[in-house]
Amino acid sequence: MNNFKILFIILGLTFSMNLFANSTFSDDLLKRATNGDTSAQLELADVYIYGWGIEENETQAEYWATKSAESGNVKAMQWLGEGYATYAGLVGDMDPTDADEHYKKAFKWFSKGTQLNDADCMVGLANLYSNGDGVEKDTKKALELRKKAAALGNKEAMRDIAFMYEYGLGIEKNLETAKFWSEKGKI
Asked: Mean pLDDT over residues 29-46, rounded?
């Protein structure tokens, strides 16, 4: 199985199924994507990566997701960022150079999405900073990004902030603040 495909499978079908319930290849989908519909382009990327109604094709999946992201679709930026980061995490021990290359790609797309005020991209970028994956480790920057994402209502960011305060990860331990963020982050 191609490594690029593994990274998107690892992401799980949850994100994709929530975005594109019952998505399958069709001439109409291809036509909309070809005509510049960025949502259709990202949907087509999903169709290709999972082989829904067409043979799996990782190259086409990456092509269509990139095309969508380059046209400003923040969901595609997040899709690519998560995919690249997940892949890098999987191959890190076996091929650190390849992992670093993919973390840098994840950084690129998460950064672009963050500039467009996308909370999910902010969380992805914060994770890279927290772990020093493809960037210099910077827990202050990670906390700042998580707080921005939390202000936009991102529950994952709220739970991450609670965790940072609870265990003093890069910041002073503060159980009261941890409890506050934990309560806000409940689903």
From this structure: 96
Whole-angstrom distance, CA of residue 162 vs CA of residue 141: 16
Phi, psi at residue 155, to the nearest 5°? -70, -35
Tally of CB atoms within 10 A around 69 = 25
Residue with tokens 């003093």: 168
- pLDDT tens for 122-147 read 999 999 999 999 999 999 999 999 99
Neighbouring CB atoms inside 10 A of 122's CB total 28
Are the C-beta atoms of 111 and 80 separated by less than 8 Å? no
- Characterise 172 by phi-psi region: left (phi > 0), alpha (psi -120 to 50), beta (else): beta
Token output for 77: 């930026």
- Quick one: 149 exposed, middle or buried, by C-beta within 10 A (0-12, 13-18, 19+)? buried
CA–CA separation, 56 and 15 (whole Å): 18
Q: Which amino acid is at 2?
A: N
From residue 176, how far is each of 151, 161, 183, 186 by CA, in Å?
19, 12, 11, 16
Whole-number Å distance between alpha carbons of 90 and 99:
8
| pTM exceeds cut of 0.70 | yes
